[in-house]
Design a protein that fits this description.
Length: 144
């Protein structure tokens, strides 16, 4: 099974971006950790990042057409992008909303997600380990 791990804006800056909030793991280290975890779980993992909303929308269309499960850290778009919500709503396979930080104990604008009510589940606040947990869940449930 192939799982798409899709990351939105600023997540390429992991490691240098507000390390007290997002930790010191770089984006390339995150990609490596996801790929290794995926290999151990027997998954093919395709990790991508974009700073362009339309590109994320198109990747979600691709996932919808291919019936692929998605781990989605939409970054700031989580909080306001109806376009990302509408694209994620087309996924038939499971989709997990993921946040490295615990958005519920941050600014009030981060406490609202336009995605949470249309996704399968949400992981927040577990640092980059959340991606590995999401992949473990996908290995068990991704084909439902
Ligand atoms: C984030 C939380 C968002 O509020 C923020 O805009 C991000 C990252 C997280 O992983 O904690 O870019 O999704």
């Amino acid at each position: 099974m192939k799982v798409l791990v899709l990351n939105g804006p600023n997540l390429n800056r992991l490691g240098t971006r507000e390390p007290s909030v997002y930790g010191s793991t770089s984006y390339s280290e995150l990609v490596g950790r996801c790929e290794r975890e995926g290999a151990a779980l027997g998954l093919e993992v395709d990790v991508r990042q974009t700073n362009h909303e339309g590109e994320l929308v198109e990747w979600l269309h691709e996932a919808a057409d291919a019936g692929r499960p998605v781990v989605l850290n939409a970054g700031a778009w989580t909080h306001y992008s109806v376009a990302v919500r509408d694209a994620a709503s087309q996924l038939a396979a499971p989709v997990l909303e993921l946040h490295i930080s615990n958005v519920h104990k941050r600014e009030s604008f981060r406490q609202h997600s336009v995605l949470s009510d249309i996704v399968t589940g949400v992981i927040a606040g577990l640092g980059v380990d959340g991606y590995l947990l999401a992949l473990r869940w996908m290995a068990e449930h991704g084909e439902q």
